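Field log, afternoon session.

UNIT: design team B
ACTIVITY: writing a sequence onto a fixed backbone
BACKBONE:
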C-alpha cells in the first residue's frame, strides 16, 4: 500500500445505474461498456431477508464473467457440470468462450452483497472452450487492504489467468485511510465501484456508485471517509468493436453468429436431457 496527498486522475463520469430488485446494473455493453472495454458489464448485487430467488440457466458466448461475493453466499451451476456455493470472500470465474449456460440462486444467508463483472474476450479466446474456476476465500491472495481478483497487486497474484492485461481488485479501507493505486504500464482504462461506505477522489462517492477515470496511466488516490469497500479495475483497452447479441459479446458479426449457434446447440442438449 502507498499513501498520497493528491489525486492525479480525473473522474469523467459517474452513475448509480438502474436498479431491478436485488440487482443494480451499473454498466452494460451497449453503454459504458463501449467506453471501458474489455470491462463491458457490471452488476451490484444486494439483497436481504434470505431470498431464495436467483438467476435461471442462461447462455453466454464471447465473454468471461467473474462473480465476487463480499457478504452472504450464492449457489451456481453450469453446463460444464460444475455446481456448488460461493461463500463470503469467494468467487466464480466463468470463461464462456464459444458457449456455455450457467445460473444460480441468492443462497441461504440473511444478506447477499457482491459484484458480477463481464469481460470481452480477445479473438483467440472468444470461440474457445468454456472453462470455469471457483476460488475459496483462502485461495484469493491479498496484500494489505487488497484482494486480487485478477492480475496482481504488490506481492499478491490472482490464480486466474486473465484473458488480456487486466487488474481487478477488491479493496477494504477503514475510515480516514488512504490507498493509492498505480495501474501497470499501458493500462489506460480505469474505474471504481463502491459497495459500502463513502470515499473522496476528491469528489465524494457513495455506496452504489460507479466512477470512470480519464484515460491515462496516472495513479488514483482513494481517501475513505467511512469504512468503505470497493472494487477497482484497470486494463489495456480492448482494441475491437463490440458486436452484441442478447447474452453474447464478440469482436465480429461472424464470431457472434458462431457463438450464438453453439449456445443454441447446448440449449437443445440441456432440454433433451432435462428430467
Amino acid at each position: 500500500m502507498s499513501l498520497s496527498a493528491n489525486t492525479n486522475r480525473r473522474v469523467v463520469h459517474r452513475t448509480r445505474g438502474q436498479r431491478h430488485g436485488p440487482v443494480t446494473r451499473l454498466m452494460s455493453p451497449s453503454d459504458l461498456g463501449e467506453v471501458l472495454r474489455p470491462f463491458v458489464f457490471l452488476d451490484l448485487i444486494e439483497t436481504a431477508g434470505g431470498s431464495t430467488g436467483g438467476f435461471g440457466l442462461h447462455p453466454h458466448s464471447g465473454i468471461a464473467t467473474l462473480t465476487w461475493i463480499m457478504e452472504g453466499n450464492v449457489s451456481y451451476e453450469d453446463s460444464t457440470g460444475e455446481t456448488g456455493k460461493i461463500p463470503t470472500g469467494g468467487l466464480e470465474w466463468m470463461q464462456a468462450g464459444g458457449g456455455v449456460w450457467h445460473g444460480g440462486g441468492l443462497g441461504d444467508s440473511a444478506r447477499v452483497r457482491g459484484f458480477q463483472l463481464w469481460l470481452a474476450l480477445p479473438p483467440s479466446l472468444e470461440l474457445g472452450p468454456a472453462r470455469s474456476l471457483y476460488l475459496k476465500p483462502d485461495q484469493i491472495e491479498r496484500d494489505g487492504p487488497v484482494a486480487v481478483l485478477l492480475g496482481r497487486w504488490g506481492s499478491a497474484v490472482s490464480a486466474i489467468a486473465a484473458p488480456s492485461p487486466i487488474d481487478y481488485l477488491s479493496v477494504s479501507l477503514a475510515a480516514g485511510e488512504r490507498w493509492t493505486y498505480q495501474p501497470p504500464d499501458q493500462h489506460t482504462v480505469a474505474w471504481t465501484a463502491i459497495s459500502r461506505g463513502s470515499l473522496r477522489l476528491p469528489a465524494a462517492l457513495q455506496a452504489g456508485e460507479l466512477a470512470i477515470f480519464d484515460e491515462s496511466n496516472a495513479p488514483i488516490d482513494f481517501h475513505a471517509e467511512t469504512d468503505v469497500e470497493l472494487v477497482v479495475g484497470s486494463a489495456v483497452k480492448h482494441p475491437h468493436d463490440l458486436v452484441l447479441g442478447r447474452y453474447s459479446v464478440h469482436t465480429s458479426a461472424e464470431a457472434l453468429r458462431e457463438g450464438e449457434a453453439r449456445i443454441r446447440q447446448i440449449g437443445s442438449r440441456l432440454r433433451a436431457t432435462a428430467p
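LOG NOTE: The chain is about 10% helix and 50% strand.
NEXT ACTIVITY: expression trials, pending approval
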